[in-house]
Amino acid sequence: LRDGGVKVDTRGEEVRLWLSLVVEYGVSLPTVAAQVQERVREMIEKMTNLTAVEVHVSIHHVQKKAGLKP
Questions:
Q1: Residue 34: CA count within 13 A, CB half-sphere
Q2: CA dist list (Å): 52 to 7, 9, 17, 41
Q3: Which of 7, 18, 50, 52 is disulfide-compatible with 41, CB 3.0–4.6 A?
Q4: Are residues 63 and 24 in contact, defined by beta-carbon separation less than 8 angstroms?
Q5: What predicted TM-score, i.e. pTM, was given to this entire model?
Q6: Are strands 5-11 and 51-63 parallel, antiparallel or unpaired?
């Protein structure tokens, strides 16, 4: 996922996801990645009744906060 986005692979009752994120400068990257991973897992399982066996999160880009001048 070079340009950001989502990839999903389902096999039977299992789903595997790869997420590429853009985050704001200054946030804790490990914290954001872990929170996204857990929330996505919860929502996939709640909404689809599939088991999210893998949720891979990568940070594609870090952008400056809105309103900051270069």
A1: 5
A2: 13, 10, 8, 6
A3: 52
A4: yes
A5: 0.80
A6: unpaired
Q: 18, exposed or middle or buried, with CB in 10 Å at 0-12, 13-18, 19+?
A: middle
- Other Cβ atoms within 10 Å of 15 Cβ, number: 19
Give the whole-angstrom CA distance, residue 2 versus residue 25: 19
Q: Which residues of 53-63 are buried (b: 16+ CB within 10 A; e: fewer)?
A: eebebebeeee
- Alpha carbon 46 to chain centroid, angstroms: 17
How do residues 52-61 score in pLDDT, each as one tens digit?
999 999 998 9
Q: Please enumerate in sequence order all residues whose Cβ is within 8 A of that of 7, keeping only pairs 6 or more positions apart, or say none.
A: 1, 17, 18
Q: Are 41 and 15 in contact (CB under 8 A)?
A: no
In the prediction, which pLDDT does 65 show? 80
